[in-house]
Amino acid sequence: MATMTHQRKGVSSNAQAGKDFENQIIQFFNENGFILEKQKKLKLGIKVLKEHAFDFGNDNILIECKTHKWTETDGVPHGKLHGWVEAMYLFYLTPLKYKKIFIVDMDYNQKKCKTLLDYFIEHYAYLIPDDVILIDYNTETDDFEAYKFDSKSNIFIHFFADDFWKYLKEK
pTM here? Predict the structure, then answer.
């Protein structure tokens, strides 16, 4: 049997790793009082509308999840980050009434001294809509680091957990 060169170590399949992460995330939000449906569908587009299914959502919140990792040689998974950029574009097209959350499986790189989300913010901030909350979620501890855009300083800043939950409860 041929070895799959892009298969993550320690999981049965990349697709299964993604589903496991999504299940943990929906449980995490449910435990914090947010009822979300899987595959929340909206019609989005510039001239022609096409249905897109966000990983989770309700009438107020939309969530996209990604569980990508640094490469085995501590390199940047540029191809995977294109999917992150696409998610940012879909959030950009989404009506302003929604609270938009991009949540990723926290993956820290010892050599670079940063998580993959830190790298994404550093290199792709110009493509991230101002109203998207970015979350680095630690699947082992259920802790997270949240970031929001600060228009005064024109950068993404740390968003405390209590403030994050309050923000989500606001109408």
Answer: 0.90
